[in-house]
Design a protein that fits this description.
The complex is a heterodimer of chains A (326) and B (665). By secondary structure, chain A is an alpha+beta fold. Helix content of chain A is 34%, strand content 32%. Chain A is built from six helices and 17 strands. Chain A has helices spanning 2-29, 49-67, 71-95, 241-247, 275-292, 311-323, and strands at residues 36-37, 44-47, 98-105, 108-109, 113-122, 128-134, 140-144, 148-157, 162-165, 169-173, 180-186, 191-195, 217-229, 251-257, 263-266, 296-300, 303-308. In chain A, the strands form five sheets. A five-stranded antiparallel beta sheet of chain A has the order 2-11-10-6-7. In chain A, strands 1-3-5-8 form a four-stranded antiparallel beta sheet, with no helix packed on it. In chain A, β16 (296-300) and β17 form a beta hairpin. In chain A, α2 packs antiparallel against α3 and α5 (275-292) runs antiparallel to α6. The longest helix of chain A has 28 residues, at 2-29. Among the domains of chain B are: 11-164, no CATH class; 348-447 and 464-506, C8orf32 fold (Roll); 534-576; 587-658, no CATH class. Chain B contains 23 helices and 18 strands. Classes of the chains: A alpha+beta (326), B alpha+beta (665). The interface between A and B is large, with 54 and 66 residues.
């Protein structure tokens, strides 16, 4: 028990210190919110654990060299120390001038990791090596070619539906020798929408189709609707080869999905369960309906979404579920 | 909480860490007892094989077992872990064994860092010119190793670093650039970082290793080993005038006590101080000796030393014995007067120890000598007769004499009749003592190579020599060199010329000449770098009239110079460390970029968003280009992009090479 109790206490002290540092950083170094270019005042350089160890070894060697006045050993030590010192400058240069364009994440379901994509670009005529990004620990790493841009993915666990503010993250590098770490904090104004976790054992979709069955949906589907002229982008498997051969022109099959009755996903169908469970069942239904290409409508207390189908409908429904009473 | 395991090594990392270790252990391997070398190399070989064959790390029991075996063999070889060679050999062995478990970045970093430490320890053994190459090789390989370990660690989250198309040359270039940028500040630190005038702690004497050089005893074969060793013992630069080569007898340990096999320095002679010495003002020879470390206390001087260097005593038999072993390069001024009379009167105790011999050895010699004693009128006659004996009875000078067993002098005089200075000096001294003449053995060096460019005498270990001194009433101790009676060329020309056979494979005259000339650099290196000390440092700015700089002023000067030099380097960094991406691996892209560069040189402003044809038409109009080469190139480029035809690729490259943006305007 003692260890369990001790851990949060220690962490809170560390978090306090980190929080205080962050606050100072933000107030002193100006806005560090994308898009912005890393400048000297944004970049910090400190030795790594390995750097400290190596430095300790150098001090030890220097003491020996001084004591025995061993000049070649001293040359070795002084050269290594200067190289190490030089790497602070190189590590700094590896970050300085780097532009952070944007950070952004697709919505995810609660429990999955939010994947924040950080876009960086190197506008300089020199290569940058092994630039890492991460919230606490580095999670992604890139070599950035001259005049190029790239993106890195930062994962963050989600535990709660609603908006997940992207925490501040670090861009860092230990280039070239790993003695020093240069880093910069970035405070993004990005957030990730976290949908409720879909219920694992959701009841089957309610078949209370009050809305009219709409027209069959053209496009992808299982049943053939008719022929139309081939358009660039049509799948080769859909080309009606016989018809095409007959007409000296490519035709492709147009498919359709017969529309079933729209289903009504209603909050009130799930009387008795607590809010989160209801939301997660509704989420599972939305996904199932979308998967089966059923038109669906969603009703939450105070919110009503017309029956519909497609990505927009899905996104709208899931967003309402995510943000419900939050 | 278990710490998160650090990242695993990749192949490049392994190769460079192993390279760093191998390079840094090379000098130590060369000096190790031969049977320890395979033991040291075995773990390295295993680790390399493991990398290429994908072997798993060894079980811990096996590793502990291997370590135990290796350390045990080391302890048995060196008889303990005391002494510098044993300690450094242990370090080498442990680093090599560490490779058995080096599968993670952390361990690899430890190995690479400690390899540099090992490199530092090697300078305790030698700071010669070849070590410059060694230090550079160590630095380069370790920097490259650290660079790859860093990459490996950074890209661990992605499961491995992307392959770079870096060649060995560009890797070395990276290391060289870092070193070149570090050199100015590093040298400033070297020159101005305050040194300690005297060491805070010294080496415990039992930590010294008997290094090659003369020692405090002479048993059969002890000088023989030195003949094989061409490393410099010391250098002497004469102020004015130089004795003939045959007069260059550099005096070292003097031996009084003989037990039938081994000669040793006498207790009295070691501890009694000389009661008189030559007047330095009248000494005909003045010179400066720069002595390589020997781990022994003897300093060398020509007969007879008139000056006594600091912290040194002059004994009754004119050995110069320093208070501490010479563990680093040592320079001292010396003056010698060969005409000095050494002890015209000899104390009883010394006289007794100068004719003392062990009972029951060499009966045949004893018999012969008592016969000579009866026949001879004076001591000088016996001395002459002994030398004639060596000269006339077919004695040979050779480095590979037959082995002598118990009655060494008997066997030598009446049996083998082959040997070198050590045998002759020993036999002669024993003969004299048997005839009742006080005699002793003197070891030291004889001759030396006169380097005419640097005008100094280089004395090598292979110039080691042993001779005798007999005490003659009235004139005192007199040098007699019995070897000269057998092989006069040994004394006149040096040990190597008096030998018929080569000592080792590359033992040619011209090789020796090259080495003797090359020694000039060694001497310069010694003078300017190895001998740099607190004293020299304090006089660094004496040309400006600032003498005796204290630590505070040195630090001040250091900071000022580092600020100046450092800011120059700071400005150089962007130029030298641009880290341009290595050339595009795609030949078509390479040609195309070249084309754009040519256009840009002519004044065309391109935008990265431009497509090939768009760029071509824009370039033609901007540059008022009248030919069709630009559009042709653009067309060909587009074709190359979308076809795999190597012919048009070549055509494109040719067209671009010939392309001149201004030729038609």
């Amino acid at each position: 028990m003692a260890t369990v109790a001790a851990t949060p206490a220690r962490r809170s002290i560390r978090d306090n210190i980190t929080g205080w540092i962050m606050q100072r950083v933000r107030s002193k170094r100006g806005p560090m919110t994308p898009p912005f270019v890393l400048e000297y005042r944004h970049i910090f350089v400190l030795p790594t654990k390995f750097g400290w160890g190596f430095g300790f070894m150098l001090v030890f060697m220097a003491l020996g060299g001084l004591n025995f006045n061993n000049n070649m050993a001293l040359i070795l030590v002084f050269l290594l120390a200067t190289v190490a010192q030089l790497t602070t400058l190189i590590a700094y240069r590896n970050l300085s001038g780097l532009k952070i364009d944007n950070a952004w994440s697709e919505p995810v379901f609660c429990g999955d990791d939010a994947q924040f994509r950080v876009f960086v670009s190197n506008g300089d005529d020199r290569q940058r090596f092994a630039v890492q990004a991460g919230f606490r620990k580095p999670q992604d790493c890139r070599d950035l070619k001259p005049k190029s841009s790239d993106s890195m993915i930062l994962r963050h666990p989600t535990t709660q539906r609603g908006w997940l503010e992207m925490p501040s993250f670090r861009l860092e590098t230990r280039f070239p020798l790993g003695f020093f770490r240069a880093w910069s904090w970035i405070f993004p104004h990005s957030r990730c929408l976290v949908y409720p976790a879909p219920a694992k054992k959701a009841p089957p979709l309610p078949k209370t189709g009050r809305g009219q069955a709409g027209k069959a949906e053209k496009g992808d589907g299982e049943e053939v609707h008719g022929l139309r002229k081939y358009q660039a982008g049509d799948s080769m498997q859909r080309v009606a080869w016989r018809a095409s051969a007959r007409h000296d022109e490519l035709y492709s099959l147009e498919m359709e999905t017969p529309r079933q009755d729209a289903c009504e996903l209603d909050w009130d169908l799930l009387r008795g369960d607590d809010i989160e469970t209801r939301l997660s069942i509704l989420t599972a239904w939305v996904i199932a309906a979308d998967h089966k290409q059923l038109a669906y409508s969603l009703r939450l207390p105070g919110i009503e979404i017309e029956a519909g189908l497609g990505p927009a409908q899905r996104a709208q429904c899931l967003e309402s579920l995510a943000l419900y009473a939050a | 909480m278990k710490p998160a395991p650090t990242a695993m090594l990749d192949r490049r990392g392994v190769i460079w860490v192993v390279a760093t270790l191998l390079i840094s252990m090379t000098p130590q391997l060369a000096g190790m007892p031969l049977h320890l070398v395979p033991i040291t190399l075995l773990p390295i070989a295993w680790r390399l094989l493991a990398e290429f064959r994908g072997w798993k790390p060894m079980p811990i029991v096996l590793r502990i077992f291997a370590t135990a075996v290796a350390v045990a063999s080391l302890v048995i070889t060196y008889g303990g872990l005391m002494g510098r060679s044993a300690a450094v050999s242990l370090l080498v062995l442990m680093l090599s064994l560490k490779l058995l478990e080096t599968f993670r970045i952390r361990d690899a970093r430890i190995v690479a860092s400690l390899s540099l430490f090992l490199c530092g320890t090697q300078f305790l053994f030698s700071q010669g010119v070849p070590m410059i190459v060694y230090i550079i090789a160590c630095l380069l390989s370790s920097l490259i190793a650290f660079m790859y370990l860093q990459r490996c660690e950074a890209f661990d989250v992605l499961g491995g670093a992307p392959e770079t198309d870096r060649s060995l040359l560009s890797e070395l270039g990276f290391g060289l650039k870092l070193l070149a940028l570090a050199l100015p500040v590093g040298l400033t630190l070297f020159l101005l970082f305050p040194r300690w005038g005297s060491p805070l702690w010294g080496l415990p004497e039992d930590a010294l290793d008997s290094r090659s050089g003369l020692s405090d005893s002479m048993s059969p074969g002890s000088i023989q080993n030195l003949f094989m060793d061409d490393s410099p013992a010391f250098r002497a630069s004469f102020e004015a005038g130089m004795p003939a080569n045959s007069e260059l007898y550099w005096r070292g340990p003097v031996f009084w006590d003989f037990d039938g096999k081994t000669w040793q320095t006498g207790y009295l002679s070691r501890n009694l101080r000389a009661d008189s010495k030559p007047d330095p003002d009248n000494a005909p020879f003045r010179y400066e000796v720069q002595m390589e470390p020997t781990e022994q206390k003897w300093l060398f001087a020509l007969d007879y030393p008139a000056l006594i260097p600091a912290k040194t005593k002059l004994t009754i038999d004119y050995q110069l014995i320093a208070s501490r072993p010479v563990t680093e390069l040592k320079s001292y001024a010396m003056a010698s007067n060969p005409n000095f009379q050494d002890s015209p009167v000899l104390r009883q105790t010394l006289l007794r120890s100068a004719i003392n011999l062990p009972e029951g050895y060499n009966p045949k010699t004893a018999e012969m000598m008592s016969e000579w004693r009866r026949e001879a009128g004076s001591d000088t006659e016996i001395v002459r007769r002994a030398l004639d004996y060596f000269h006339q009875h077919g004695f040979r000078y050779t480095l590979n004499p037959p082995l002598l067993t118990r009655d060494t002098v008997d066997e030598f005089l009446f049996g083998t009749r082959a040997g070198f200075c050590e045998h002759y000096a020993s036999a002669f001294t024993v003969m004299m003592r048997m005839a009742g003449i006080p005699a002793r053995v003197v070891t030291g060096y004889q001759g030396g190579y006169f380097n005419s460019i640097g005008s100094y005498v280089l004395v090598r270990q292979s110039d080691a020599h042993a001779w005798s001194e007999v005490w003659v009433r009235g004139s005192g101790w007199t040098r007699i060199d019995p070897t000269a009676a057998v092989a006069p060329e040994r004394v006149e020309q040096g040990a190597m010329e008096s030998l018929d056979q080569r000592r080792y494979m590359l033992d040619f005259q011209w090789v020796r000449n090259v080495r003797n000339t090359f020694d000039l650099f060694q001497r310069g290196w010694n003078n300017w770098v190895v001998a740099f000390s607190a004293d020299r440092q304090s006089r660094l700015f004496s040309v400006f009239g600032w003498d005796m700089l204290g630590p505070a002023k040195l630090v001040l000067a250091m900071i000022v110079i580092i600020l100046v030099v450092g800011s120059i380097v700071f400005m150089l960094v962007p130029i030298l460390l641009k880290f341009r991406s290595s050339s595009d691996p795609d030949p078509v892209q390479r040609s195309w970029k070249r084309f754009i560069r040519k256009l840009e040189k002519a004044g065309f402003v391109s935008r990265p968003s431009m497509a090939a044809t768009e760029l071509a038409s824009s370039a033609s109009s901007q540059l008022e280009y009248k030919g069709d080469a630009i559009s042709k190139i653009a067309e060909l480029y587009t074709r190359c992009r979308y076809s795999q035809d190597p012919g048009s690729r070549q055509e494109l490259a040719d067209l671009i090479r010939r392309f001149q943006p201004r030729s038609t305007s």
